[in-house]
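Hey everyone, long-time lurker, first post.

I ran two proteins through the pipeline my lab uses and got sequence/structure pairs for each. Pasting them in order. The first:
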Amino acid sequence: MGIKAYVDNLGALFGEGFPDKDYTLSRVVTVSRMMNHFFATGVPFLLKNDFKSIYTVFSGGDDLFLIGAWNQILKFADRLNEKFHQFVCKNPGITISCGIAIAKSGTPVDHLAEMAEEALRKSKSGGRNRVTVFNQTLTWDEYRELLRIKDELGDWYRDDVLSRSFLNRLNRFVEMAKRESELLDKLSIPLEAMDLALWRSQLGYQLARNASRKGDDGASKHQSGDELKALNARLVDYVGSYRGKFVIPLWALLYETRGR
């Protein structure tokens, strides 16, 4: 996996970020040097201490390109935004955008760089101050929440509440919810597309079948009707709220649990 990050509107920051009375060469040089310090010193320090399986292709000036394990890259993107936000003293006018590309091992670095660059372009064209992964562009708040949801799904999976087969079926319901949302923005909905609205009931049916599955000990975590309803409501809320973006926690968990 590769990640590219770039400071948003840096030219505007230098051109318009200083009041006329404070616009001096020394201040511009100081800001430029401090920005480079974050990428050339702060990022390598963060990698060395917390993300040892991520490697630097380049990091300096106002951007970076890194490659590494996909699960580490996903976590790093959130930490990068957090650290940068702290570095600029939470100034809402100075933000960062990221593009994350996933590819098979052995993919040439230059091809991975092109994929990450395309994802980064989507983040910038989507409004900047965003991250793009799995072809989905999100705000940083959405991204952090979806990473939390991924951990929640993982807990349910490890506790045998949700099976891998159910997680695979969730892909279909996410796609149905996404297409339903797109059609609702139009003036008319084709009759043949009305089935898309059934994703909630179909999700509930598949969840009930999954939860009634007996484990090795003959018991199931969610035999209770109240527990099943609560879990179903949670999943319907997540898929209904995030639609296509829900593939981020879902696919991340499916990648993580391959071979189990």
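...and the second, right after it:
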Amino acid sequence: MTDPDWQHSILLEVGADGIALVTLNRPERRNGWTPQMEARFFEVLEAVDRDPAVRVVVVTGAGKTFCPGLDTGRLDTIAGKPLDLTGRRPPVHTWQFRKPMIAAVNGACAGVGLVLALVCDVRFAGRKARFTTAFARRGLVGEYGVTWLLPRIIGAGRASDLLLSARVVDAEEALSLGLVNRCVDDDELLTAACDYAREIAVHCAPTSLAMLRHQLQADAQSDLPTALTAAYRAMTKAVESPDFREGLDSFVAGRAPTFAPLADSYRPQEITGRRLPEVDHDPSAALGGPLS
């Protein structure tokens, strides 16, 4: 299914406060996911990652839903046919970016939409938000790495429950499961998420944020000695940086810090000596041809 208005399927609004609001914008299709929408999403995030004015990203959905998964029209067209994933990027591609991502989940969040929320660093939910893995009830399997991600966020037993039953979870239960970090009234959702993002933008060093994001993702996939070695390398660079001096001086003076924007050349992996596992491979090429 081709999205005729794909360039507007993802909206970007950058505020003077350093917050980039990224909105999934196909409300007439409940923000159902398409390959064209996916390409635009990563195109926008790449621009945001290079923009020195942006310090934190908030992702939300237009209208009454976040993202209920793949567009139902697309599901209808691919059913019973060989699946070609050539050139596609999974949601975990967001790990390549250096700026914190906050999900503001409104309404339905299912399938790939759920994975999009899971790869964000912090998740806010409106009280009317509803979550489901959905895959088992569509005759599908755990897609986009969800069987790797979900147990690491909420634990193996809870992940098994949500994946095997594909039951619907409301916002309050999502909070109790650890699926989301905050649950707020729907009319306060975006304000709450942006306020939280603004606190980070004002008080935290962009280099620290980029490094911490890298460490969290890399350490989840390594052992403790490797994590410690990488941390020592990062610490050595950090104590020599202007950001550390500014962090100390602002704390002693009781004022807000003035941290420099994130330089385009700053690459956490080059400091720690660790690269995240390759997640952008072409699945079609990796398996010797189109998936079927």
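Reply from user beta_strand_b:
Welcome! Quick read of the second one: The first strand starts at residue 10 and ends at 14. The radius of gyration is 19 Å.
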